[in-house]
Amino acid sequence: MSARRADPTRTAAAVLGQADHILDWLAARPPSQWRRPSVLPGWTIGELAVHLETMLAAIGRTHFVPEEKVCTVPYTTC
Fold this sequence. Notes:
- Helices cover 55% and strands 0% of the residues.
- By secondary structure, it is mostly helical.
- The termini are far apart.
């Protein structure tokens, strides 16, 4: 069985679309709510926001850059 490949353009559009929805939701919250617990035990809304930002940035650096610019050495910055 061969692996299915995702279309990078469609994947990027889906990821960015979800990020836009999350940003809209977060923007509607006053700063005091960012310190409140989220629905995930042990995480505040603010902690989840930072986590999502970090993951989106990592995805952007590794999956949506020209192939010749992707670092192929694990755990290093090329």
